[in-house]
Amino acid sequence: MEEQKDVIVKEQGGVIKIADDVVRIIAGLAASDVPGVAGMSGGIVGGIAEKLGRKNLSKGVKVEVGEKEAAIDLFIIVEFGKKISEVASEVQLKVKDVVQNMTGLKVKEVNVNVQGVVFGSEGKEEI
Predict the structure, then answer these.
(1) What is the pTM of this model?
(2) Helix H segments across the chain?
(3) What's the rounded mean pLDDT across residues 68-85?
(4) Which residue of 9, 63, 96, 116 sits 20 to 30 Å from the alpha carbon of 28, by its own alpha carbon?
């Protein structure tokens, strides 16, 4: 079981705590919002092609969070026909921007691991 840590930011009025799970969820949602990302994968250990679902919004996301910085690893599934390098670059930019804006943490790196490719809507969940 993964150890739960919190980011603690000391402000004049007290302390703000941000759980690692919150950073994971923010990163996962930002990545899944990028066009060309069909879903998230649980990584090598979790198996390939596990889609991002509403019940586990941090699936396919690993974070290392310090007091002021974060490093993020993402495991994604890309839609067939999309340029993988462009999708991955867009994921890096969006995740970095969203996490920094929402948490105030400096994101040192966003590593994107492409775990698979799906055809059409095969990887998208029906809403």
Answers:
(1) 0.78
(2) 20-32, 43-46, 84-103
(3) 95
(4) 9
